[in-house]
Amino acid sequence: MLGFLLITGDKLGWVPHNSDQNAWLQVDLLVTRQLLAIETLGRGSGDIQYVRTYKVSFSQDSQQWTWYGHNGNTKVFVGNYNNHNSVRNNFDPVIETRFLRLYPLECYAYRTLRWELYACIKCEFVIVTGVWISRVYM
To answer: Where is the F5/8 type C domain (predicted)?
Structure first.
């Protein structure tokens, strides 16, 4: 899980070290949540860098992980095609979990990304962010 946040002016994003081909980004939601969707973006500004495809896994205890997919097949999500348009992928079925990991696969230049998770809590939508300030939507 080697990686770092790019925080130089407005150049925001998470990028793993190039030497780590099995890198992942993990979030702890602190309690079990129903995750409805994931939205990704590429690097905030500067060089064009983004993740084209990725997969996710989830866990209740951060020890035993399950790949998200259907009928035993791990789903590969289609990510971004540039670094300034967001791409939202819905979880169908929803994921009920405390921990989630995102594994960047294919990329343009570097595996740089920004992301948001959409969760349902008593029918209020909360965005849990990987890089920017959290917001609550109703």
So the answer is: 1-120
